[in-house]
Amino acid sequence: MSSDVRDDLTLPVTSTDAAQAITAAASGFAGSADPTLVTPEIAAMAPYSPGRPWRQVARELGLAEADLLQLAANENALGPSARAVAAAANALSDAHLYPDGGFSALRAALAARHGVTPQHIAVGNGSNEIIELLVRTFLGPGQTMVTSWPSFVVYRLAVQAAGREALIAPLRNDRYDLAAMAALVDSRTQLVFIANPNNPTGTYVPRRELAAFLDRIPRQVIVVVDEAYAEFADAPDYPDAIRDFGHHPRLVVLRTFSKIYGLAGLRVGYGIMDPALVHYLDCVRQPYNVNGPGQAAALAALEDETHLRASQRLAREGKAQLTEGLARLGLSVVPSQTNFLVVRLGREASPVVDRLRAAGVLVRDMRGYDMPDTIRVTVGTRAQNMTVLEILGRALDG
User: pTM to 2 decimals?
Assistant: First the structure.
């Protein structure tokens, strides 16, 4: 190498180099797309869009933060349990220490709640992480995942990112079509995902249908029943998959603290499954993947039955209030076993969503779920629901 040619592998990076790199990155140079860097599956993906930060939206609209109605992400309108908040705050004094990487206290509490052993419990950074871990751990080359659509988008995203194949059965009458899903299961199938209740429609799979499906599926297939909204469900034939089907050797049941417990910002979820499956997930997951305040808050939330019952009552009464008010506006809803409603507008929804946003009401535009004439509205407090109905009526009038 001649003396006038720089060897970037050996020379130190100077402050000038760093400044130039930062400037280049800010101008978009360093971030230009290069599909050769990744697999074709990842190159074809778009990042998950979580929506704009709500405080920023309030500032842009010129609203006080308290006046912005956040009804797009199915969060608990009551907020978290006061006991959970206090437990998380107390845990912050140990922020210099690593959290319990084995979740011993949380696993024990969850095991007692569900009538299993701690070895049956996998804990994740939200149940979302467990979905990704299941795909990374168990879905090998040439194997497929079966699910339905519209449903929770992360099932498909996780499989696509892993370079595997997802086989999709469309919903029928807004519900999972388990017969159509079973027809897609073959010798390549390793994973099946069922959201029960389903997000985004709020519908559910009855106990008898789920039992028939499990009986039909080969025993080596891992069937994941995602019960993120289970605590809101009150239909007489809604199944508790752990209680009703815990004997199934490859059943995985997912739960979360993000919804009924109001801890979405702390990211704690869990799965209940055969200890052998838990072992392999523990081999793959990151160490200390759930923070200490999150674990402390989850433990306290489990003990606060008053908050749980109040959250269930708010969702039940709020759905009735919204359903009645929407009917007066000439709109119909999909019957829901969750804390949200899918509303059929009978027209393109995006302009209505924009008018609601301009008035300080954030709801979910369902175009990404191939439901362009609907919106999804999280159940709020009674006063919030009245505000939504009033503003929606004006938005429909243009």
Answer: 0.89
